[in-house]
């Protein structure tokens, strides 16, 4: 496992060519898209695969092995507003997903905990962790 | 900077009509037609839809006192009354008349999924005694959006620093008494 990045709010990954990556690495900062999409573009151009990826948030981290499948890292953002009082609630999670042939496996970390879900292979929406 | 989602609505808080963020303790308040009236005096009759829409603070005071937020009243699945006007096709509802869901990303990111719904005692449950109608701006028909299984899909959005979604809302009590409910947006970004 990689040492935890100094940025505690990020994803990290390792690729088969031995390189280690963090979301904040300068080569991944491009205007066109997110650092993860740039890592995907780089891996396609240079012909390397992601071995595993890890999401870090709020002192929690969760790592997922590729096991020969594509991995994706992203975020889930939720906003709630009460129709009758109680104010607004923002939540933010980081997730890593393994795209298998017959399912998608999601690992999610947030301020309240860590969760794992499975969804059908065409599901793009990150499952909402339960409220606490 | 962290990615965020915020709700906004067009109203005039006294500094001019503008798209204004719904503050942390602000509330969306639907009532019967007429002047702003909080509580029983503004109650929407059972099985009727809202005649007024206001943004109020935690003390239940109207924030949109100079110019109210636009009221969208469900008439049929494909029609709406806008600010008390005649029946109009729902596809005439403009973005400025809707609740704005603003997704801000830094660095740029794409939205791969976005949903919106209303819930009551739990995310899977519709608000008790309340029918909530909603639709994505530009859509062809209202939908009942109570409970996560009834969430409306807001669609994807290509990589950018900001993504705007717009949702029209209308509510109707199905029984007497104060109602509770929560509106939720859930957005997946890569």
Account of the protein in words:
The complex is a heterodimer of chains A (132) and B (190). Chain A is mainly beta. Chain A has one domain (10-119). In chain A, 9% of the residues lie in helices and 46% in strands. Chain A has one helix spanning 35-46, and strands at residues 10-15, 20-22, 50-57, 60-65, 71-82, 88-99, 104-110, 113-119. In chain A, the strands form 2 sheets. In chain A, strands 2-1-3-4 form a 4-stranded antiparallel sheet, with no helix packed on it. Chain A starts with 9 loop residues before the first strand and ends in a 13-residue tail after the last strand. In chain A, 35% of the residues are buried. Chain B is mainly beta and 190 residues long. The radius of gyration of chain B is 16 Å and the shape is globular. Chain B has one domain (4-189). Strand 5 of chain A pairs antiparallel with strand 13 (182-189) of chain B, so a sheet runs across the interface.
């Amino acid at each position: 496992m990689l040492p935890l990045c100094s940025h505690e709010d990020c994803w990290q990954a390792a690729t088969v060519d031995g390189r280690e990556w963090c979301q904040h690495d300068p080569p991944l900062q491009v205007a066109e898209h997110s650092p993860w999409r740039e890592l995907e573009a780089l891996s396609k151009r240079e012909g390397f695969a992601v071995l595993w990826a890890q999401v870090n948030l709020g002192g929690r981290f969760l790592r997922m092995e590729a096991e020969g499948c594509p991995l994706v890292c992203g975020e889930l953002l939720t906003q709630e507003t009460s129709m009758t009082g109680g104010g607004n609630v923002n939540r933010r999670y980081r997730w890593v997903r393994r795209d298998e042939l017959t399912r998608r496996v999601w690992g999610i970390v947030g301020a309240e905990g860590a969760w794992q879900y499975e969804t059908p292979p065409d599901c793009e929406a990150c499952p909402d962790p339960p409220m606490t | 900077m962290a990615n965020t989602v915020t709700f906004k609505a067009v109203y005039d808080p006294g500094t001019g009509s503008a798209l204004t963020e719904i503050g942390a303790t602000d509330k969306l308040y639907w009532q019967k037609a007429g002047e702003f009236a909080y509580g029983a005096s503004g109650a929407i009759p059972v099985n009727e839809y809202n005649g007024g829409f206001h943004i109020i603070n935690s003390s239940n005071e109207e924030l949109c006192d100079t110019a109210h937020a636009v009221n969208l009243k469900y008439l049929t699945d494909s029609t709406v009354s806008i600010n008390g006007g005649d029946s109009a096709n729902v596809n005439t509802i403009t973005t400025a008349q809707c609740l704005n869901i603003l997704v801000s990303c830094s660095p740029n990111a794409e939205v791969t999924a976005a949903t919106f719904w209303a819930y009551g005692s739990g995310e899977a449950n519709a608000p008790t005694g309340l029918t909530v109608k909603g639709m994505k701006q530009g859509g062809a028909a209202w939908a009942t959006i109570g409970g996560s299984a009834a969430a409306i899909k807001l669609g994807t959005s290509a990589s950018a620093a900001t993504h705007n979604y717009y949702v029209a809302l209308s509510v109707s009590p199905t029984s007497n008494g104060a109602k509770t409910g929560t509106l939720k947006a859930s957005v997946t970004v890569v």
